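In full, the data.
>
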Amino acid sequence: MLDELAGRCLLRPVPGGAPAPARYDLPGCLVPLLREDLAARVKPAEAGLARARMLERTVRQLRACRAETERDEPAARAWLAELPRGLRFGSRRAAREWLDSRLPVLRAAVRLAVDDGGLDTQARRLLSALARAVMAHRGEEASAAELYPLHQLALEVAERRGLVPEQAAAHLNLADLDAAAGRTEDALARYRSALAAAREAEEPFLTARSLESLGRVYQESGDWERAADWYGRALGLRLARGDAAEEARLYGRMATVHEHTGDRGETLRNLRAAAAAARRAGDRSLESGIRTRLAGTFDLLGDADAAAAQRAAARRLRGKAEQ
């Protein structure tokens, strides 16, 4: 039927030799006519339901596309096995080829769903599924150009719906991409927007993440004083929540900043605090790494005995971690 419609110039085959089944574009001149016909034949609620179902099917197919990258995990294999045959892919390569060939259509579907205004739930699910699929198949760095407009659309929906935590998350995602691309000022502005939204939503995790990200940008810019300030604020939230592993990581970041300023006393204090937090967290590998850093600091301070003791402790912890 599609071939016949194309033969009558009611559809236009997409050039480029797409894999079977063939794909077609609808000539723009037919769009208003078809919309008029749809309005005459189908009730608005029924048309909206059909669009929602189509978007949900696309979400499931995108999840299947991502799951192909996780076939080594039993849960992913079991989930894929329960899908209808029409939503499954034969291999990771087939899923990647489908994603690459359908990206223009998927982008258009997301844009239309966001513009509709009445399909925001499906639009949010589609945005998330598409972003995850692209990340899974392309990796973080290669996905940046594709992900940026998706996060912008997610922010648009979150602002329209007044979803403040999702606004914070979208700002964080955009800021991470700006920071990775070297757009430092844009990243700082985005992280501050994320921080404001996270505080408004009273989301401690997103607030701490925004504070730490601001510290990281200043650290990478060599602004050690501001980096220490933002890390300190993030650390205060982590301490209030009693998250020992996160405390250890942030104490380690603070130590790195003080190493660059030459304040070995503060470096030592923060590393000791990191080791104590790692001990509470029960992460022997993490504590071993911190004690190795402590040994290096003691070397710089000229305390060979303390350095040797820390290296011995690090070796014991590594041995226990490997058991």
Observations:
- The chain has 15 helices and two strands.
